[in-house]
Amino acid sequence: MPFFMKKDTMEEKKKKRIMMNLVLLVILMGLSILSIGIGAEEFSFFDLLKGHGQESFLMSISRLPRTLSIIITGAGLSMAGLIMQTITNNKFVSPSTAGTMEWCRLGVAIAILCFGGQATGFKVTFAFLVSLGGTMLFMMLLQGLRVKNAFIVPLVGMMMGNVVSSVTTFFAYQYDIIQNMSSWLQGNFSLIIKGRYEILYLGIPCLILVYVYASRFTIAGMGEEFATGLGLSHKKIVMLGLIIVAFLTSLIVVTIGSIPFIGLIIPNIVSLYHGDNLKGTLFETAMLGAIFVMLCDILGRIVIAPYEISISVIVSVLGSFIFIILLFWKNKKGGAA
């Protein structure tokens, strides 16, 4: 039997999992240091350690906030995608394929039109309510259609998302707020400075809540009858998952902008190696999502330096390529089976 077909014991699997987690953590720390050192303004870690004022100011006002926002964004979108894929039992569902991000933008547009002078927190709340309603509508459509083909589900979500996006664009042009809306059409970390990203910290309790309810989300993904048989309220667990997804997505869309593919490809990559146990893959999913977004952001800053390419453009190019590979990989496995 080839060495890669050898079955590991539970203890060996646990050691490999711990080693993998440490490797991901070290990679993320290394990329974070690299991210802090890259930018249009020269930055020296040696001068920072010596206590030079300019490096300290640049570190606190721009470089550190940007790096932290990248980590939270990557982890949050990955976890949101993992939750949606678990409760729908479909590997092709994510905030970007279920229309959640488009509903967020619609909520932001309505908030700007009706309450333009309100604070960011108000826009987040309004975008959250609209995106939650849109995501619930998507789930209701799935229950009504009862489709068996896994590819049809994201197609329904994307079609609905395109309709919502068209409505948002129409109102943006109609009321001359297209420039205000442009910041939510593409994700961008270049405007992240101290005082403009701290609201992302509200997503951390959501990530903790995901870990606490991970096993219940997994059971809910097995179907309503199965969950009810185990004494769980399927509707309440699914609603909690949708609330977490909508809130995380709203925080990121309002603060950073729309970033596609993260919630779609990262959970699929992790599941190829560690299966579909949500609780057992949470850390790897969050770390890999943060690493991927960090890599894309660094790439966007160095390709045409000192100018910068939007993070959503880099993620779209790399994410679509990875998604195609995943499709062929899963198709090959399905054919082999």
What's the helix and strand layout?
Blueprint: H1 10-37, H2 45-50, H3 53-88, H4 100-115, H5 120-145, H6 152-174, H7 178-185, H8 203-212, H9 214-220, H10 224-229, H11 234-255, H12 262-274, H13 278-302, H14 311-336
Which range does the strand content fall in? Answer: under 5%
Q: Output mean pLDDT.
A: 81
Main sheet properties: none
Radius of gyration computed on alpha carbons: 21 Å
Low-confidence stretches: 1-5
List how many beta strands DSSP finds.
Answer: 0
Class computed from helices, strands and strand pairing: mainly alpha
Q: Please give the alpha-carbon distance between the first and last residues.
A: 19 Å
Oligomer: single chain
Secondary-structure element series = HHHHHHHHHHHHHH
Helix content bin: over 70%
Shape: globular
